Amino acid sequence: MDIADSGVQVYLIQMPGRMAMYGYNKLIKLNLLTDTTKKYILAGHSQGAKMAARFVYEHPDLIDKLVLIGTTHPRDISLAGRTLPVLKIYGSHDGVANEANILANRGKLPTTTEFVRIEGGNHAQFGYYGFQLGDNSATISRERQQGETLKYLLGF
């Protein structure tokens, strides 16, 4: 099962050069957030999560919930004063966005942010792009890590 199978309408937006920092405002250019009768959840992984947080920071009235996966961000902005529900998911074996750095930046998120630690998960297994330089080996399968991530996303 994936998110779309659960009845949630999903958009995966291709970023220029696979770099979220160059295209995170495409949400506005593509007119994906114009139906005010819908609730919008913005999610991102790693640098994509950084830019999702940046988008919410710059456009606070467009997004209803924020999901940050495998990231230490936000680091250079603060969402602490926002009432926006935030879910932050990370792996216990993530060598790129390690737990100490993730928790060090929790003061830049709303106090109601829900933190979820996936035991045995690493950075790369949140996606399908192969080995990530600096990452640690996961002790759970990709399917299990992504299944747990999906469970928390759908429960959010």
UniProtKB/TrEMBL annotation:
One GO MF term? hydrolase activity
Q: Does the keyword S-adenosyl-L-methionine apply?
A: no
Q: What is the lineage of its organism?
A: Bacteria, Pseudomonadati, Bacteroidota, Sphingobacteriia, Sphingobacteriales
For this entry, the protein name equals Alpha/beta hydrolase family protein
Q: Where is the Alpha/beta hydrolase fold-5 domain?
A: 2-146
Keyword set, alphabetical order: Hydrolase
**Pfam families (alphabetical):** Abhydrolase_5
Q: Which InterPro entries match?
A: AB_hydrolase_5, AB_hydrolase_fold
- Kinase found in the keyword field: no
